[in-house]
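2024-03-11 09:14:02 INFO worker-7 job=invfold-0412 stage=load source=structure_tokens
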């Protein structure tokens, strides 16, 4: 759907995207995560042709963005909806008008005078189609009853729903989300993420989700790219990046007990391992028992995954390491225990 090869972009002499290569598959929810200033928004703007790039390639649905002419670029942007942190809505217009806006722009026929359009009946047909489409979209995002409300009177979550409805108006193939939940409280964030997941599943819409919030990528992204100062640090399946030895989860601040003796071992539970009763089985097989000193379970897309930290006495370490290797489990010893 999107193919990025050796992408390099500068602002003046400052490199902001450094040799990025990755691809986004059709129907995927792909995350781009990184701190503020990492280059996430710039990358999105390369996808829809709002930013030029100095070298490398960005192909969206098989076409090199930098080579598109005005008309083709317009079509590309129609196929890519976008939502933003600050919503970018017309605040003094009502919900209906905001969602209708892209339809009116796209369906208007500026070459024909209004009088002629009315004579040909173009205006009326387009209006009826617009009305039907807007109502369909408002039903989808759960705002049909707010259609005459001014946007400025809505809550943040409702505004983002309007943003989503507007972004979907022209039936895009790809939805670009730039910090779409960063201005929302945690509960509303979950509602919006659920809506995005539903839209992805229902329409097989490809989503690119840009965010600095790790909780967001864990919740909905199938795969992700970690950006750091414009460079791609990691690329892979979300749970693999977080739930691997030395993975991204390693740096999350976490609490666990430091016992006076023994070594703390983190056992990671990605999808493939989460359903096995690993600790109970190990205790039984080895005839040992282990105190649990820490752990964290979180929602990863549609599952609850995470890690547990157990404390293993020094004298049993070799046995336990041997067992963990033999069973092909994912683990790491925490040397600061
Ligand atoms: N129009 C611009 N001109 C010059 N520098 C810019 C411009 N836009 C962004 N930058 C710089 O590029 C870097 C990446 O910005 P941005 O893509 O907005 O990061 P992010 O979205 O990850 O916070 C930052 O250092 C930012 O200051
Ligand atoms: Mg940004």
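2024-03-11 09:14:09 INFO worker-7 stage=emit residues=337
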């Amino acid at each position: 759907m999107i193919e990025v090869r050796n992408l390099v972009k500068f602002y003046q002499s400052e490199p902001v995207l450094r040799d990025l290569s990755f691809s986004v598959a059709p129907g995927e929810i792909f995350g781009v995560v990184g701190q503020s200033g990492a280059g996430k928004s710039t990358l999105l703007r390369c996808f829809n042709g709002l930013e030029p790039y100095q070298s490398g390639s960005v192909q969206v649905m098989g076409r090199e963005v930098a080579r598109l002419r005005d008309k083709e670029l317009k079509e590309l942007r129609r196929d890519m909806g976008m939502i933003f942190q600050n919503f970018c809505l017309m605040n003094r217009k009502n919900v209906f008008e905001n969602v209708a806006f892209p339809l009116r722009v796209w369906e208007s026929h500026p070459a024909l005078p209004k009088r002629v359009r009315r004579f040909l009946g173009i205006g009326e047909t387009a209006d009826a189609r617009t009305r039907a489409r807007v109502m369909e979209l408002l039903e989808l995002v759960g705002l049909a009853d707010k259609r005459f409300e001014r946007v400025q009177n809505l809550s943040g979550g409702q505004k983002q729903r309007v943003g989503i409805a507007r972004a979907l108006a022209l039936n895009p193939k790809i939805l670009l989300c730039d910090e779409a939940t960063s201005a929302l409280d945690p509960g509303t964030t979950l509602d919006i993420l659920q809506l995005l997941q539903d839209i992805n599943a229902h329409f097989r819409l490809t989503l690119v989700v840009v965010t600095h919030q790790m909780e967001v990528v864990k919740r909905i992204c199938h795969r992700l790219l970690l950006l750091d100062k414009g460079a791609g640090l990691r690329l892979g399946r979300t749970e693999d990046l977080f739930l691997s030895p030395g993975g991204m989860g390693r740096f999350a601040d976490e609490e666990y007990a430091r016992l006076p003796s023994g070594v703390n071992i983190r056992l990671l539970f990605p999808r493939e391992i989460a359903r096995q009763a690993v600790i109970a089985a190990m205790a039984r097989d080895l005839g040992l028992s282990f105190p649990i000193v820490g752990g964290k379970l979180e929602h990863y897309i549609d599952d609850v995954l995470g890690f547990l930290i157990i404390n293993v006495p020094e004298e049993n370490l070799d046995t336990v390491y041997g067992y963990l290797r033999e069973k092909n489990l994912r683990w790491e010893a925490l040397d600061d225990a």
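2024-03-11 09:14:09 INFO worker-7 stage=report msg="The domain at 248-334 is CATH 3.30.70.260 (Alpha-Beta Plaits)."
2024-03-11 09:14:10 INFO worker-7 job finished
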